[in-house]
Structures are given as C-alpha cells and as structure tokens.
Amino acid sequence: MTSGSARISELLPQPFPTGYRCRPSTAADAASVHGLVVACECALHGRAVTDADRVAAELTPAGTQRGATLLVLDSAGGTAGWASVRGRRARVEVHPGHRGRGLGGALLAWTETRARELGSDRLAQTVPDADRAAGALLRSGGYARLVTEWLLEIALPDEPEVPEPPAGVTVRPFRHGDEQAAYQLTEDAFDEWQPRRKTYPQWARETVERAGFAPAASPVAFAGGQMVGAVLSLDVPEHDGGYVERVAVRRDHRDRGIARLLLRDAFRTFHRRGEPACTLWTHSGTGALSLYERLGMTVRRSSTVYGKPLVTE
User: Fold this and answer.
1) Rounded to an integer, what distance in angstroms lies between the CA atom of residue 236 and that of residue 54?
2) Cβ proximity of 308 and 141 under 8 Å
3) In the chain, which residue ranges form alpha helices assigned H by DSSP?
4) Separation CA 165–CA 234 (nearest Å)
5) If we measure between CA atoms, which residue out of 104, 109, 135 comes closest to residue 123?
6) Rounded to whole angstroms, how far apart are CA atoms 174 and 248?
7) In the 8-state DSSP scheme, what is residue 43?
8) Rounded to the nearest 5 degrees, what angle is found at the Cα of 156, between the Cα atoms of 153 and 162?
9) pLDDT tens-place string over residues 36-51
10) Which of the chain's ends, N or C, has fewer CB atoms near its CB within 10 Å?
11) Tell me, what's the pLDDT at 17?
C-alpha cells in the first residue's frame, strides 16, 4: 500500500474489506473508471450508455474538488469500485464482480464523510431502479426518495416534420460564438428546479467541449437578437442513436411551441445522419415528461434520486 493509500485509509469512516486498497482517482484513471461504469451498465441494462468523454470530464482537476474522488483496487490492481463527491451530489460504482463484499457500504460512508468535510449539509445520489440492491442500501442508510428520472427514446424510421417557428422567432444550428448565450440560457432554466448552478468551465466540459458535441443537431432559437431556446445534442459511439443533452427555453418564451420545434429539428438531423433513434433524460422536477411523450417518446428505463441531510459528527 502506498503512503497516499495509507493516509486515505486512516480517514475512512469504516475499513474496506480485506484485499482492497484505495486512493484518489485522477484524470489518468479515466479509462479504468469508464470501464467500470460500462461493466455496471451492461450488467444492469445489457448495454453501455455513458461515453468515455463524460467520465473524463468528471476526472479533470476542475471537474471535481481535490480529494473528492476515491478509486478502489483489488489485489491484482484491477478497478473494483469508484466514488465521487461534487457539492451535494455523490456517485458510487461497484464492479459487478465485486458486489456483495461490503464495498458499496464502505464507499457510501466515505462519500458522506467527504461531503461533510467539503461543507455540504445534505447529499443525493441517483440510482437506476433496476439496481435494487443499491436502492435498498441507500434506504437502509437513511436516504429518502426525492425525484424520478426517466430515459426517453424516440425511433426515427421516418423523417420528422418540423413546424414553422412562432412569429418573431428564428432558428438555426448552433455555431461558434453561441457558447456563452447557451450557458446562460440553460443554466437559468435548470436553476429554477435544481439550484446547483455550474461554472462556465464545468458546463462547457459537459456540453460544447465534449468530443461528441453535435452542433448541426443542436438548434438554437432567437427572438429580438437574443437566444431564447436551445437543444444541445451529442453524437457518441456508445449511444445507439443521437442523444439530447440539454433542452431549455427562456421563461418568457415558453408555451409557444419552441421546445417542440427545436427537438423535432434535432430529431430530423439525426434521422438524416442515419441514426435509428434519439434519447434524452428528464427529471420529474421539470414537469417536461408529458411534452416528450406528446412528441412520441417513450420511457426506456427510470432512476431514482435519493437524498438525506448530513448531521455534523
């Protein structure tokens, strides 16, 4: 065990199972962590959905606070588990081949301790509903259900019809120079129901700076020279189709059909590229599920966000 691992072990709220060691993860571990995430997703869903670029963004020095990640290695040096804490959000992954040995409980305890050290008064974690063991672990640890998330999908066998824009609104594909306006628009919209605003560098790493960002499939709407709507899309190898990462319409331009127009525009672009389908995630807090269902999208699977207050120890 390295001196760094020893120091981390001294700070763990409970010992890890015999045969495992841990250390902070770094950007150099992106491929190993992505392999772990893929193994977990394939075991639960039969296919991977998280692309390597997203994992790499989480592991950049600016993507997470220093010391707020933990990598668990087995005796042969293989990646057995991983956890991260970012503000009030945590993530825990345990390789399917290492489940049932207490790693999940140990990593969950670490996330709570680390979150307290970073000044958080509560912690939340998203768990696929198919992962019943993880849900049971969280509930037994005092976590309560907060909201539901759904992965929706639309098949694209035919080219979607795209309606005309409302009066005074113009639509075009995303282009260089739109980054700051799209950041302001999307973060303002998301901040209404999920107040954990990202800095521009964090937002950009997860959207427009990703290798899979698809400007042609990311239509933006303008009114009076200002951006009032945006759909930001990705085209990545891990997805069996297009993927919409962000949907936002400025509050004073809602209920005009702009979101519907922009989504259909993105779907049309993906269809023309030969993509068989398009997916996106939505959250029960947004109230947007019915919009997506009216567009012909259906729920592929769901996840639950669990949370609990952190009592200072």
Assistant:
1) 10
2) yes
3) 3-11, 30-45, 52-59, 103-117, 132-140, 179-191, 200-206, 258-272, 289-294
4) 23
5) 109
6) 14
7) H
8) 100
9) 999 999 999 888 878 8
10) C
11) 85
Task: Give the span between the Cα atoms of 24 and 4, in whole angstroms.
Answer: 8
Longest C-alpha distance within the chain, in Å?
66
pLDDT band at 197 (very low <50, low <70, confident <90, very high): confident
* Sequence-ordered list of residues with C-beta below 8 angstroms from that of 180, at least 6 positions apart, any chain: 200
Query: Residue length, the chain?
Result: 313
Neighbours of 9 (CB within 10 A): 14
- Among residues 270, 260, 191, 199, which one has the least CA distance to residue 233? 270
Q: Which two tokens stand for residue 33?
A: 């962590």
- Cβ–Cβ < 8 Å for 93, 43: no
Quote the CA–CA distance of 109 and 13 in Å, as a whole number.
Answer: 6
Q: Which CA distances in Å does 167 have to 84, 146, 271? A: 46, 39, 27
Task: Identify the CA nearest to 246 among candidates 164, 150, 182.
Answer: 182
Residues contacting 100, CB < 8 A, separation 6+: none
Please write the tens of the pLDDT for every residue from 131-184.
Answer: 999 999 999 999 999 999 999 999 999 999 999 999 999 999 999 999 999 999
DSSP state of 131: -
Segment holding 276, helix H or strand E? none
> Residue 182 and residue 267: Cα distance in Å, rounded?
19
Question: Edge to edge, what strands does the sheet with 169-173 contain?
Answer: 21-23, 69-73, 79-86, 89-94, 122-128, 298-309, 144-155, 277-283, 242-249, 226-234, 219-223, 169-173
In angstroms, rounded to a whole number, what is the distance separating the alpha carbons of residues 92 and 98?
Answer: 13
143-170 burial string, b = 16+ CB within 10 Å, else e? beeebebbbbbbebeeebebeebeeebe
